[in-house]
Amino acid sequence: MRTALVIGTGLIGTSAALVLAGRGVRVHLVDHDPAQARTAAALGAGYDEEPESTVDLAIVAVPPAHTAPTLADAMRRGLARGAGRESSGPLAATADLFEGRPWVLTPTRDSDTEVLNLALELVALCRAVPIVMDADAHDRAVALVSHTPQLLSSMVAARLRDADDTAVRLCGQGIRDVTRIAASDPRMWIDILAANPGPVADVLAAVAADLDETVRSLRALQSADETKRAEGTAGIDDVLRRGNAGRVRVPGKHGAAPTAYETVRVLIGDQPGELARIFADAGRAAVNIEDVRIEHANGQQAGLIQLMVEPQAAPALTAALRERGWSLRT
C-alpha cells in the first residue's frame, strides 16, 4: 500500500491515518469541515488535499447515514474503493487506538480479493485483530453488545433527570458505571441506530420480556402469600444468576477470559499529582495495576480509588501503600 484516502478526519479516521502515515503511506485527508482535515494534517496524519488519481485504499470514516453516499461520490470521481466510521474530533486520535481491538470485515462473494487483502493489510498495520463475519451476523452482534447497552444506559440515566436532588446525591459507582455511556452524542447514535433498527429492536424485545417477568416477581415479593413470595424470590434469583453467567463471558484484559482481581481501596485527596503518586508507589512495589476506578465522595475534597490487581499481588501493594502513608479502606 502506497497511497490512501481518509474521508472523515474524526477520531477513527485520523487514528487510522496516523498509523498509515507512520508506515510511510501517502495519506490524503478530506472532511466536510476543512478545518478538521487541516488539524489532522498538522498532527502528522497526512495531507489535507484530495488525491489526483485513484488511491490504493480509501477509508470512509463518516457517520453511518453518510457512508454509502460518501463512498459512492468518491468512486464516481475515480478517487476510491474502501470503508469505516467516525466518533469524535482529530485531537482525540492516537496511532494505537486500534491496537488489540477487533476489526470486523464483512466481504461478500462479489468482494474483490485485492481489496480484501488491502483491508487486511490496514488492519495489520493498525495492530488490530481481524474478524471476518457475515454482514447480518455483524449487525446482530453489535446490536447485542453495543447498541442495546447504549439505549439501556440512556433509559436508566433518563430516570435521574427529574429525580429528587437527595436521591441523586446518593449516586455511587454502580449508577456511574451503568450510565457512563449515556453521555454519548445523540446525533451520532441516531445515525447508528437508524442503520440497524431491526436487530436492536429484537434484543430490546427480549430484555422487555425479562423486565416484565422481573416486575411480576417483585410484585410477588410484596404479597402476604408465602407461596407467591417464594415464586418472586425464584424469579429474581433466576435473572440475577443468568446475569452472572452472561457477565462471565465478557472478555477481560487483552481479550482474554475475565480474571478475578483483588481490589485494594485507598482514600485519595483531590489535589494535583495524587493519582501519579499512588501509581508511582505501586510501581515501586513492583505491582501492576490491572484496572482502576475512582469514586468521588459527595461534598468532600476526596475520593476512594479502587486498584484492581492480581490476588497474589494485593498483600504487597497493601503493605507498600500503608508504609508510604496512604489511608486504606476495607
Automatic annotation (TrEMBL):
Membrane-spanning segments: none
Pathway in which this enzyme or protein is active: Amino-acid biosynthesis; L-tyrosine biosynthesis; (4-hydroxyphenyl)pyruvate from prephenate (NAD(+) route): step 1/1
Enzyme class: oxidoreductase
Domain of life of the organism encoding this protein: Bacteria
Keyword Amino-acid biosynthesis: yes
Family from the record: Belongs to the prephenate/arogenate dehydrogenase family.
Protein name from the UniProt record: Prephenate dehydrogenase
